[in-house]
Amino acid sequence: MKLDPVLLAVLKGRLEQIADEMDATLFRSAFNPIIAEAHDASHGLYHAETGETLVQGKSGLPVFVGAMSFAVKLVIDKVRKEKLTLRPGDVFIFNDPYEGGTHLSDFKLVRPFFYDGEIFCFLASVGHWHDVGGNVPGNYNPVATECYQEGMLIPPVLLYKEGVLNSDIISILQSNSRLPGSLYGDLNGQVSALELGDLRLNDLLSEYGENIVTSALVELNHSAAKLMASYISELRDGTYSAEDWLDNDGIIDEPLKIALDLSIKGDQMTLDFSRTSVACDGPVNISYSTCIASCYVALKHIFREVPANAGVLKPINFVIPSDSLLSVSRPKPVGGYTETILRVIDVMFQCISQVAPEISNGCAYGTINALSMSGYRKNGSRWVMFSFFGGGHGGHPEGDGLNHGNAPISTATIPPLEILEAAYPILFTEWALRPDSGGSGKNRGGCGAIYEIELLEEKADAFLFGERGKFGPPGINGGKTGALNKFTYPSALNDKTSPPMVSKMVGIHLNKGQRIRLETPGGGGYGSALERDPSLVADDARLGYVTSASALKEYNCVVSEDGVLNVKETNLLRRKG
Amino acid sequence: MIGDKEERQTVVGVDVGGTFTDVFFLNEADGSCNVAKVPSTHDDQSLGIQEGIAKQQEKLSGVSLIIHGTTVGTNALLERKGAKTGIITTKGFRDVLEMRRRDRPETWGLWGTFKPIVSRELRVEVDERILADGTIHKALDPLDVKTAAKKLIDLGAESVCIFFMNSYANDLNEKIAYEVLREIWPNDHISCSSQILPEIREFERCSTSTLNAYLQPPIGNYLERLDAGLRKGGFEGEILIVQSNGGVMSVNMARSFPVRTALSGPAAGVIAGAYIGLSAGFPNLITCDMGGTSFDVSVVANGESSLAAQTSVDFGMVVRTPMVEITTIGAGGGSIASVDRGGLLQIGPESAGSYPGPVCYGQGNDRPTVTDANVVLGRINADKPIGGKLACLDVKAAKISIEKHIADPLNIEVMAAAEAIIRVANAKMAGAIRLVSVERGHDPQKFVAMPFGGGGALHAGALIKDVGLSKALVPRYPGVTSALGCVIADMRFDKVHTINSILEDLNINELVSEIKATANEGQKSLSEADVKFDGVETAIELDMLYLGQTHTVAVKLPIRLETIESSLNLNMIQSAFENTYKQTFGRLLVDIGMRVLNLRVIVVGHRPKFDLSILGPSANDSIKDSKTGSREVWFEGAWWQTDIYDRLSLPEGQCVLGPALLEQPDTTIFLDPDLEGRVDKFGNLIISRKNLL
Known about the structure:
Largest sheet of chain B: 9 strands, mixed
Shape of chain B: globular
Number of strands of chain A: 19
Radius of gyration of chain B: 27 Å
Strand content of chain B: 25-35%
Number of domains of chain A: 3
CATH architecture of the domain at 492-606 in chain B: 2-Layer Sandwich
Structural class of chain A: alpha+beta
Number of helices of chain B: 18
Largest interface: A-B, 81 and 75 residues
Oligomer: heterodimer
CATH class of the domain at 492-606 in chain B: Alpha Beta
Shape of chain A: globular
Number of strands of chain B: 35
Largest sheet of chain A: 7 strands, antiparallel
């Protein structure tokens, strides 16, 4: 049945709203700040037979848009394989990162939605729980070699059977977490979100009828595919290749290659990751589903109008070999998946920039920098501070990159320093933009940041999980690379020792008054630095985003320390090239 | 005797909007009302105000009170036209304003940029540091402040913000710096973060205080001009300014805290909406303000508007002061309709705004907008456009544009395309209403829609059907709702102070004296203005949370200031928190401690209200005289012969059956064929489904 275009547009809005309302329900009822504040969660409607994304909420974490269909597929496969019969009110729960995507912290709830006695679609909810066991509180363990060191792994099991809760499962989950109360609250929020989705979808189907809503979903899928295909067909046919690197896997200090050969043929795109390194020992592996989800994130950053449904991926073919670090299975550790998917996104931008620089941008800072500090207060109580840090975004066709932004895979904000200082015995001694960190270019990369933290109590340990310590964020279209991630701590050698694995380290011992210092990458530049307007370079020098030494070296601009441009000498220098 | 207090009987509400300055007059002696509408004067809003008042009030000496909702602050922020401002801050932290909370403007797309309102060279560091517990880690040398100030003055700074880390916990260093600056700064445009917002969260405090400093010169100058102009005309009364939270404050307060006017204008509209709704028996409503580029909704539940703790005026421009919570979506009259590459009809986010505006304005835009669709469908009178700026609207051009951009790509008839635009726009607006009501845990069926502003009433009927609202209420004068809101707004004093203590460690005696001191300060501030109150009320709230959480809930303490010593204790605070938490989240956490983050003291001076029925229709009106003609309106695929009424002359109790158009100078109401409208005693039009009345 072909729907009239108005009804289609109206139903699109109503369906998206159901997913948005599910998001809103969880955000306001979640107990843990990773969901409540950083919105590390997602909800949607998924195909009854294939698990494909039909509609997904707009306010959830970008990377889940794409990963969740694999989670739903996992339930569908289990039901088929075990010849189970689903009933209204059933809810599955699991956190398997290999089939369902991302990492162990993300718990997925999947509920069949019945209409007129048949499964119309699945509703699903995913949220990042505060603690799921494992060796490191908060589950960012940079030296894990198996998933068992990262937390508990729950396969799809029935949390609710025909609406009746199996509380044994909650007991098992709670006894495996350092924060059982938080887990219980988040779980309830997710259940409420699914209930609300069920209610709203039922209303919608009663109002419009099953056939019409089904037709709308089919047409929305076609329309998304058509939209994506139309963008692709505007790109010149050919193969565009990029390679980027992870510093190491935290276990062996060898770079790991992320390589993409992106081919365009007509309105089809192939993403071939065959030349990528094979699975590694440490926790920077990701699963197949996570890899596809991160490609989707990159596409959505480039083609912002494409909707969140599976149709978008129709014109796209993936080649991801099964021995690749982008396609691992149990028990390979995946806790640091954020670093790897940031790199996947970076190679996407780099490939697209070769065929269409006008829609791409320099790479963003490309590391999550999960830093934790922990110790005991004078009164003997334990404290753990855990946070992610920011960096610069890439230069882009419309201007310089954003200073101190968040990672492309998330929309999370950083907690206020005053809250951190009030909660933990630490003192920030510097919180500043980092000069010369943005990659040079016609449009400069945004600046990364400097964070320096002093310990106020007698003793503490610090842990860091970061990247981009050896390979800076690349620029595009002639733009230069942003500065490297740099972390220093006091050791027996000197006050500013860097970790052997550059940005990954466990168990740094700190004494009162000692400081750790994190300097994060800026973004990559866009276009040749020699095309940058010298007056902008002078402004940058005056404001301290760029030093006058770099103005000379990178931009061929003669600028005094206080930012005064020497026009004559600059012209001379630039003419010489 | 002219100018005698007895003679000053008129209270005047003034709302300055983008296009018009609206004035509402209330004569407190005889209860009569009047309105005036004049074009806004953008270079100096005070000129338009004087002109508007002069329209109905010969002598300014007869005015006792002028209450003003202003957009001077909003515009200065949006257009970045505040003063050149400097910041003096803690060593190591000059980039707080620019680093924000590490966010980005849009979820999708990485092309954001951000230019802070104070550039990096105007942010000067001094060596000082306070710890989170208030300990002075590094004392401040006043000489350093002098040097920093001199640098800023040399760079041309007009105003200055003092922002030190953890000053919420101990304001000593900021106070020292303030004293130094008072001596040497060439004017009084000095904002001190511990005075503007003594609340934990450095970026929010820095941003709010800096924006305050940025607005001090322009708002100060504006208020001076306004005051001088009015006094010259013989005005001897008091001027009050509407704050973003819907309460009013004195001119002196506005001069010191201009950032509190960031959403002054829209707030007054919501306050009026709440009062009109309450009077008419609808305490639960959703106000809908449809402008040229946006559709703003706000929830009023049980007669009270919802307040948000903060807002972003623009990306990275965070203002943290309590303000009426308004949700905006990009669906206004000027929103452009298009068909995307996937073949889907979309409304917005692009907008033609008010200039060049819709195609039918004939000012250069050729892409169809929501207004164009309304014109083509016959819902807007093309020969009598609202506002009187244009003589007539170009229906033909609007039709051609819809044909080309919508009908052809979708392969449908042009009238169907025009109707499609309205339906999709309605669906989008309905979505905004659903989300604000659901997010607040409200059931939309218990709410009525209240459109105000120029455009909303055309869509109100459709919205109640789309969302499942019970009714829509169109106020008698939708175009001057904000000005009316000014007249009835209460005077309000807000102060927040961070306590940050675990509940069991809370020092009750200290808290009591702090509450009393703040309440005194508030009452003093209220009594400084020459304003009558029916009563003064003090509310005490604590922002509280469970240990480990980051989101607080605002806990209203069920106590009275007079008996605070005997009633305030830990048990009472705990149970107040648990009640609020349970209401908000439906459950409690067991065995987890609680924290008191902030103390909020709110002092409200209730201003006398007036009976809205004086706005109502006169007893002599009759529907016969109201009917002014008829025209064809397109609805659900057909032309309907539709009666047109002069809305303001409809008698009380009159029921009008759809399809009908109700016209008045500042708006047009469309009743769908399946709707009807009834005039209540206040002159409001209550729209509902036909079979439900």
